[in-house]
Amino acid sequence: MSKMWIGEPSRRDFLKVAGVASAAAGGLLSLDAQAQGGALNAYTWSAAVDLVKSHLTAFEAKTGIKVAYNTSPWAQYRDTMVTKFVAKAPIDTLWVSDSWLPEWADAGWIAPINQFPDLLKYNADADQFCTDSMTYKGKQYGLTYYSDYMAFFYDEEMLKKAGIKEPPKTWDEVLQQSLKIKSAGLSDYPMMLSMARESWLIEFLTAMVYSHGGRFVQDSGAAAMAQPGGGAQKALQWIADAVQKHKIISPACVETGELNGLKAFGAGNHAFALLSRYRIRTLNDPKQSPIAGRVRQALMPAGPGGSNATVGWMRFHAMTPQAAADKSRAANAAKLIEWFGGKANGQYQFQKMLFDDLGSGFGIPSLFKDPDVQASYAKYADIKVFEAQQKLARKKDVISRWLGEWDEVNGAAWQSAVIGKSTVADALKKSAGAWNELRKDS
Fold first, then answer.
1. Residue 218 dihedral angles phi and psi, to the nearest 5°
2. Where are any strands of DSSP class E within 156-287?
3. Residues 347 and 323: beta-carbon distance below 8 Å
4. Burial of 219 (0-12, 13-18, 19+ CB in 10 A)
5. Residue 124 per-residue DSSP state
């Protein structure tokens, strides 16, 4: 599975796309309208295409409702959809990243589903952070079909060679065990942390901040990351010390993206790594990983005054205002959303299909008790740890209309402190100032 599941937008990209989209409005609208006819117009990015087609075929057979299925590559999906929104192209249902919710809801591009009790009933089965991630200004905008979180992995064999019997429970233990592994000559940089400025970075940083008991943003919406002695300061100081003082994380971490970090850990170069939870399937696959069978998941280490909390993310199936405005079309769209995000033929079929085929996570805790899920996961990891960590996952507190612009400033600020070009306090002050300024101007 690739980053297609979890990207973050840039508001500059939105402005660029929106500025040119109206010129194409007439052509897009008439072309799509002619092509799609009376079918529901469903849009997704190009992920799990065969599974989606299979699930749509079953939906059409079950309900008699026709669906025109449209896809766009993940890299172009957001721009493509913004262009279509501005052009008022016919769209009924679509996949949405939790990171886009405030912008798309405020722009009137997606519609709340609160008027559909048959959809809201699934909240009782879902992880709270998933429901929270679909809720904006008191309204819910869809049903989740995929969810996952940032996990802490370790190479069990390397720990054993260093005489370490148990994985670390705190970030201080990560440091101490890393120093022991390093002194034994087993790894030059035992801890792998990807800190390149890409869309994964905010997940890595948020997991570190949450596990150190901190936040980026207060409940009021104001910046919290620059608070002296706060969790963000503790997390950034730990990383900076790990790179500069203890040398257990490579200074090249600021140039290492998630995929290269995965490859480096999978090659046996490191003892510990922060990676997306679903990556454990690849890491323990003998066909893809030299260290297959050695990778284990532990709960996220806790910082001083922190906890085992981590950051989660999710994707949801939503409805447009165009569909919601037509009673019959809205009812059909709601059935399609339920088919993907709720139950199909009495079970959470699509979430199970994604899990079985891709190893991707789900937002329905009861699936941890499903015998098929348990048997499948047991082939490469411990489902009890998967479940325990998911209970501690929280949504990103920085999701906002200005996330993209702020993330550029924040990522650069953290990198600067990590390699010693600025102090931790100055880096977080810069990040907080950018957040508050963007919030004020939006």
1. -75, 165
2. 191-192, 272-276
3. no
4. exposed
5. G
Helices (H) and strands (E) in the chain, counts: 20, 11
Spatial neighbors of 429 by CB under 8 A, at least 6 apart, are 226
Angstrom CA distances, 134 to 42, 138, 337, 410, stand at 19, 10, 13, 24
Where are the extended beta strands (E) located within 17-125?
40-45, 67-72, 93-97
> How far from each other are the two terminal CA atoms of the chain, in whole angstroms?
34
Rounded to 5°, the CA angle 266-268-273 comes to 65
- Domain pair 3-148+312-394 / 150-311+397-441, same fold: yes
- Please tell me the class of the 150-311+397-441 domain: alpha beta
Element (H, E) at 177: helix 171-183
The letter for the amino acid at 23 is A
pLDDT digits (tens, 9 = 90+) for 163-195: 999 999 999 999 999 999 999 999 999 999 999
Q: How far apart are CA 148 and CA 378, in angstroms?
A: 18
Q: Could you give the C-alpha distances from 305 to 167, 211, 309, in angstroms and in order? A: 19, 9, 12
pLDDT digits (tens, 9 = 90+) for 114-153: 999 999 999 999 999 999 999 999 999 999 999 999 999 9
User: Look-up: residue for tokens 């993330």?
Assistant: 407
Instruction: Please state the domain extents for the chain.
Output: 3-148+312-394, 150-311+397-441
Give the architecture (CATH level 2) of 3-148+312-394: 3-Layer(aba) Sandwich (3.40)
Q: Are strands 139-140 and 135-136 parallel, antiparallel or unpaired?
A: antiparallel
* CA 125/CA 105 separation, integer angstroms: 24
Q: Please give the model's pTM, rounded to 2 decimal places.
A: 0.91
Is residue 264 left, alpha or beta, with left meaning phi > 0 and alpha meaning psi from -120 to 50? alpha
For residue 57, the one-letter residue type is T
